[in-house]
Design goal:
Helix content: 25-40%
Distance between the termini: 13 Å
Bound molecules: flavin mononucleotide
Largest sheet: 6 strands, parallel
CATH architecture: 3-Layer(aba) Sandwich
CATH class: Alpha Beta
Oligomer: single chain
Structural class: alpha/beta
């Protein structure tokens, strides 16, 4: 059965090793594309209709408001059916202690019964924070495997870690 990589990632300003830097490609996207390449998975990028502010602090404000008010932002595209996929890789940056709300907009529509989810997370210090608990709540019926947790500022040096995680968790067996 084919695998699917679902991810959210925001290029542009971000907090990297204590400084604000502008990323040409988002950290989670780097990992997502690497996983897709190694597993031959299909890829679905979660994109909101309304862009988040490029400015890091403004973006944090918007993200916090969305989280506090349980806002599920509208997306450019949705997936309706994941029944053809066995393993679903789900990737996101930690925003305000969990995954960004656009991921909720997508995942709440999908049937995860009997699916295997392999989460991959990038962060700048909080590790997976509360996101795995939240994923369990959102994706009822799925088996959630050990997450791949990578500090955003390390993503370009993690090829071995990514391929080991894929192999350990069974994709190539
Ligand atoms: C709005 C916002 C909120 C964030 N909140 C956290 C956080 O709570 N904990 C943390 O460790 N990193 C936080 N970060 C840093 C990101 O998780 C980290 O830089 C990640 O690698 C970004 O991935 P991306 O480039 O794929 O979007 C936040 C970044 C943004 C833009």
């Amino acid at each position: 059965m084919q695998s699917l990589v679902i991810y959210f990632s925001k290029a542009g300003q971000n907090y990297v090793n204590g400084e604000i830097k502008s990323l040409e490609v988002g950290n989670t996207e780097v990992v997502a594309l690497k996983i897709a390449q190694l597993t031959n998975a299909q890829v679905f990028k979660v994109e909101t209709i309304k862009d988040y502010p490029d400015d890091y602090r403004e973006c944090c404000k918007v993200a916090q408001i969305e989280k506090s008010n349980d806002i599920h932002p509208d997306l450019k595209n949705y997936l309706s059916d994941i029944s053809n996929y066995g393993i679903i890789y789900i990737g996101y940056p930690i925003w305000c202690g969990s995954f960004p709300m656009p991921l909720v907009s997508l995942l709440e529509r999908l049937d995860f019964n009997d699916k295997i989810i392999k989460p991959f997370v990038t962060h700048e210090g909080s590790k997976q924070a509360n996101s795995i608990n939240d994923l369990n709540e959102l994706c009822k019926g799925a088996t959630i495997m050990d997450a791949l947790v990578i500090k955003g500022s390390d993503v370009l040096n993690t090829d071995d870690i990514i391929s080991n995680w894929i192999n350990v968790s069974g994709e190539n067996e």
